[in-house]
Amino acid sequence: MTLLAADELTVEIGGKRVVDGVGFTIDAGATLGLVGESGSGKTMTALAIAGLLPPAARGLGRVRFGRAVLDAGKPGDWDGLRGARIGFVFQDPYTSFDPLDAVGAQIALASGLPAAQARERAIELLAECGLPNPAAAARAYPHQLSGGQLQRAAIAAALAGGPDLLIADEPTTALDMTVQAQVLALLRRLQATLGMAMLFVSHDLAVVGALARDVAVMRAGAIVERGPASRILTRPEHPYTRTLLDARPAGKLPGIEPPAIAAAALETSDLRYVHPARRRGMKPTLALDGVDLRVGNGECVGLVGESGSGKSTFARLAIGLVRPSAGAVRLFGNDPADRRHAKATARRAQMVFQDASGSLNPRLTVEAAMIEPFALHGVGTRAERRERAAGLLAEVGLEQAHLARYPHELSGGQRQRVAIARALALDPALLVCDEPVTALDMTIQAQILALLRRIRDKRGLSMLFVSHDIGAIETLADRVAVLKDGKLVEEGPAARVLRAPTAEHTRALLAAIPRLESAAAPAADPVPA
Amino acid sequence: MSAIALPLLRQAALICAIVIAVFFLIRVVPGDVVDVLALEGDLAEAEVAQIRAELGLDRPAHEQFLRWLARASQGDLGLSLRFERPVVDMIGFAVPATLSLAAQSLAIGLALGVALATLSAIWPRSPFAWLVEAVNVWSIAIPTFCVGLAAILVFSIWLGWMPVLGNTLVPAIVIGIDVAGQIVKPLHEELKETATAPFVRAARGRGESRAQIVFARLLPNAAPVAIALSGLILTGLIGGTLTMEVLFGLPGLGTLALQAIQGRDYPVVQAVILLFAVSIVTVNTATDLCQRLIDPRLRR
Lengths: 529, 300
What we know:
The complex is a heterodimer. Chain A has 19 helices and 19 strands. By secondary structure, chain A is of the alpha/beta class. In chain A, helix 3 packs across helix 5 and helix 5 packs parallel to helix 6. Chain B has helices at about 1-30, 35-40, 45-55, 60-70, 85-120, 125-140, 145-160, 170-195, 200-205, 210-240, 240-245, 255-260, 265-295. In chain B, helix 1 (about 1-30) packs antiparallel against helix 13 and helix 6 (about 125-140) crosses helix 8. At the A-B interface, helix 2 and helix 5 of A face helix 9 and helix 10 of B.
C-alpha cells in the first residue's frame, strides 16, 4: 500500500529550480534510499515532503500522504502530521535540540502526551534508542551529550509521535565512523520492529544500500534512476550512478558493517592520563580524558589542538614514553610502555620532536649521532652503518659534508632533517611527529613538510602528526582528529573535517587560521631582504 | 562560586575607585559650598573663612577624605552642608520615589516591548510588526520631556484627570514607552534571527506548534538580549529619571543629585554617587545571574 506519493514535486530558491518535477512513492513499511551528491536537491526533496522548506524556498506540486493531499507550497498543510505521523532526523545532531531546554523535555513535547506520561515516554524512547542511561540523558542539556548520543536522542524524538514515515537526512554524516555504524544499525532495527516506512537520504551509496531495498538516484534536481538496491549497486543503468559508484574510495566498506580490521599501527581505547601534581598543594591535571584513536597501516592521522589540549601527551603515550593512567595503547598490537619489548617498540615506532637541537647530543657529530641507533640495536658492521647513515642523510636532502658537523654548526632546518633521518634509521613503520616544524621559519617549514610527505609516500609509513597548525596537518594527513581539553571532539577524513567541521571547536580552530586574503594589503615587510 | 565572587570583588574595587575619584574631582571644580552661600547670603570675608573652618573645608583634601572614609565606614555619611540634615535621611527620602518610578517604567517598558516583539514574531505580517517600528522610532525621535509636557497638557490641564505634581503613573508610562522602544527592536531582530536557527526547524520537524515554538524556543533563546538591555536601562533609570522628576515634581535621586552638585554640597554628591555605583554593580550582577539561570551552558 502506498503511504506517500510525491507528484511533480518542485522546489525553487531564488528563481532557480533545485528540485525539478520529482515523483516517487514510498510503500507503508518500506525504505527508500535517496542518493545524490551535495547540491543534487535530495535534502530539499526530503524537507519538501515534510513541509519543512525554508522560507526562502518555494514548493510546488503535491504530496499525497495516506489520505491527505498536501500542497508543497503550503507548509501549514503538514501541521498535525509533522512529528505525529512524519518524523524527521537531521544531519547535524548538535543543532537538533534547543540548547536551553533539557533533551527529555523536548522529546516529551514531541510525544504530544500529557506532561507526566510524556516524561516517562521520553525516557522509554531514549532507552529504546540505545542510550545507556536514559533517565540521565533525559535530564541532560544538549551540550552535555556527545554527537552520537544526541543523534540517538534526535531519533528518539522523531519516533515520539509514533510516525508512519521516518525521514532521515544524512543522519550519520556528522558522526565518527564507529558511531555511524551503530546509528545505522539502530535505524535498521527500529524500522524493522516498528514497521514504519523510511526515506533515507545520503550521499553514500553503500550506506543507502545497507538500509534500503529501493534506491533513487538524484542529480541536478531530478531522479535519474530508481530501482532495487541490489541492482543499482551492482548493475547501474545510468552513467551518473556508475560515476557515483566509481567515486567511492576503494576498500571502504559500507558503514553498517563493522569497520575494517586492517591491523592498526596504533590504537588507543579510552586512554586517560593524569599529570601528577608537580608540587605539593597543586592539583593533578587530567591531560587526556578517554581518547579513542586509531592510526591504520599506511595512514597519516593529524592530531590538532591548542596548546594544553593533551596532544603532546598523546604522542608520548603512543610510543610508550609514559604510561597511561587508564585505558590502553596498542602499538602494532603490543603495549609500547612494556619494557620487555622496548627494543621492538623502538624499531617499529620513532618520534620526531619539536626542538631538534634538544634531540641531538651537542657533543656528537652528525655521523656519530646517526650511527648510534644502529649500534644500540646491533645492526650491521661499522662500514655498513656509516654507509647507511650517509644514505639516510641523502634521503632527507643533506650532503655527505654534513656528516662531520656538530649540531650547532647546522641550521634549524638541517638539524630537524638530521632528527628525521635518525628517526628513520631503524626503518620504523610508524613515525610520530610532535610539532616537527613549529620552531622553524615558514619557508623551511614547507620544505620539511614536503620532505615528510615524500618519505611517507616512498616508505608507506604510518604517521601520527601532532600539530596546532592546521595548514601543516592539511598537507599531510588523511584523517584528522581534534583534541580539546583532553577529549576528542571530532574525528574524520581530513577533507571532511577541514572543510565541513561539525564540532564547534574545530570551526573555531579553522576560523583562527590567518588567511592570505585578510593579509591582502600587507604592511611593509619589516624583515630586510 | 568563584565565577560570582571574583567579578563581585572586581566590582567592589571599581566602586572604591569611583568614590575616590569623585571625592577629589568635585573639590577640583572651582567654588565650594561656602562660595555658593556667600553669593546667596552676602557674607563677610571673616565669616566665609570661619564657616569654611567649621565645615573642615580648609583642611587638605586627603585629610578630608580620610575623615569622610572613617565616618562612612560606620554608616555615617555626614550632614548636608547646605541643609544641615543627615545625608542618609535625605537619600532615604529620595530613593523610594526614584526606585518606584524606575521599577514602574521598566515593568511597563518590558511588558510592552516583549509583548510587541512576541506578537510580531507570531504574526510577522500583522500591524504588530508595524507597531514595533513605530515604538522604536518614537523612542529615538521624541525626547521624554516633550512627551511628558504633552502628557501634562492633555491629562492634567485639558482633561483634568490628575494633579500635575506628585503623580508617578504618567511619568512611568512616558518613560515606559521610551524603554519599550529601546528593547523592542533588538528583541524583535533576535527573535527573527533565532527563528532561522536549525534547532527551530528541528523543533518544527518534531511537530511543535507555532505557539510552542515561540514560547518554548524563540523567547527563551532571545531572552538574554532583553535581560542585557533591561540591565543597562535600569542602571540608566536609577540615575536618569531626572527630567521626569523635575517635570512632575517628584523628590527623587535625580533632583537631589542636581541640587547637590549646583550647591557644591559635597557629602550629598558623594553619597549619591556611592549609591549609583552600588546600584549599577548590583544590577550587573543580577543580570549575570539571570543569564546563568536561563542558559545551562553558562552554569559550570
